[in-house]
Amino acid sequence: MIRLLATALLSLLLLPSVLAGGKKPEALSVNFHLQGNRDDGPNRVFAQLTAGQEIYYQVAPTFSSKDFISFVPFPADDGGSYGVMVKLNTGAANRLTSITADNRGQYLLAIVNGQVRDAVLIDRAVDDGVLVIWQRISIAEVRQADAAMPRIGQDPKEWKKNLKKKK
Q1: Alpha-carbon distance 66 to 130, whole Å?
Q2: Which of 2, 44, 85, 125 is deepest in the core (most CB within 10 A)?
Q3: What confidence score (pLDDT) does residue 10 get?
């Protein structure tokens, strides 16, 4: 009786893992983190080597994949990877203008699928609603982005139609 109960309990505990095995992986995770202040503490900032110095960034992302409406890849200057431009939705574009106007001289760090890819120094207010990761994007990540959002200039309805054809 105890053995039967233990087997049933173990089966119930393993069921979510088995069911999750059939889920599609998240298409792409991209986060941009604004430079923070070391004094904010370890729960609010993290250190990252940037431009040869230790810079602290806010743990909470300033922009994330949910803010993007389209993208376009381009060959990076390193010759082996890609960069991407991402177009932000209206609310995020307004935040970008405000944040970049208020934080000149600070860094914005790009993290893709949990890995640091690039950091840019904010030198002016950005009012076009576009963020750029200049390097270290793989072709696999470009394909993930293609599955997550249309390219800049591509009709979203056409993109969805083409996505359904590929499945």
Answers
A1: 14
A2: 85
A3: 40
